[in-house]
Every structure is written in C-alpha cells, then in structure tokens.
Amino acid sequence: MSLIKLNIKGISYSQTQNGAYALILSEENGNRKLPIVIGAFEAQSIAIALEADIKPPRPLTHDLFKNFCDHYSIKVKQVIIHKLTDGVFYSSIITEQNLKEEIIDARTSDAVALALRFNAPIFTYKDILKKAGVYLQTAKEEDLKKEEEQAKMDIDPFVKSSSSVDYTNLHEKTLTELQDLLSKAVSTEDYEKAARLRDEINKRRD
Questions:
Q1: Average pLDDT over the chain, rounded to an integer
Q2: For the whole model, what pTM was predicted?
C-alpha cells in the first residue's frame, strides 16, 4: 500500500469546541488537506516547534522526549498515520537505535509534535487520504484571495450565516446538506468544522 507524504499547513482554532484546534496536514504533491482535531496542549507544542524563534524556559513534554532520545541515540525516522476509525486517527512512530527499528503506537497529535522536533517526514496511506481528505483546487484558493482583495466588504453568505449553523446536531441533516456545508467550510478554510462534517459523512457511508 503506497504512502503519501504530508506537510503541516498550520493550526486553526476551533470555533465550535472550546479548547480544541484543527491541525491541517496537506499532501505534498496534491491539493487535498487532512484536518485533525487536537487538544490545546498538543496545538501549543506543535506551534512552538514550528516557530524556531520561540524557546520555552523549560522543556515541554515533547522536548523532554526529544532530549531523552538524543541521550540514548534513538532517532525518530518517520511518522505514519495508518488508521482511521470513527473519526479517530491512529499513528505509528518509526524509531531507530543501533540500526534496529521499532514501531511505537502514538496519538497523531503527539506523533506530529515529535516528527517536527526530529525533522522526520509524516506519511499516510492513500485510502485514508481518499476517505478523510478535503479537496480544494489551487485555482479556487487564488480566486478567493483575489475576491478578498477586490471586495473586502463583500462577505460570503455562508460566513454571515455560519454562526447560526448548529454543528452539534449534524445527525439531523441530510447527506446532501452535509456535503454542501463541507464544501463551504473548506472554501472558507474552516477546517475544524470541515473535519466534523467529514466524519459525519463518513459515518453515513460506512
């Protein structure tokens, strides 16, 4: 089964769940994005690792793990997001010590935080990206940026009404309504909502 390399696009704050964030991973040679809902601590740890100029006064948990591995000559070679069940992503950390590889089970948020600190690549399988990825054409992104520059006061109707959408009662909506909301959430780059809509759609299809 072929692996697809993912890059970290960024982190967005959840507007529907207090203290939650959406980690956005994008395929290296494509336009699909994989939004994953993560906690505040993991989001902070990933954000700090992305910003080279930020140095916490004391090591965070993931920094401590990195120091521990360095001390015992353990290297994180890669991270693989290998399974998706009921909206939960499962990951493996591939490590190497004295030319011996080991596979360690990990939460995806922790695995990504460690991959950043070891400069290790992140991968997922083709079928996972096909099932959970959200697709947005590059041309469409460029068009949205042009529209924002030309008409900053022209707010998209979805943005006006998005606050009225109840994302806690998605089970009451039809599949067509969910797909329409997913498309609008992706177009406005609200990936946390997109992740929840995607998971609800996948439940209907399974």
A1: 81
A2: 0.71
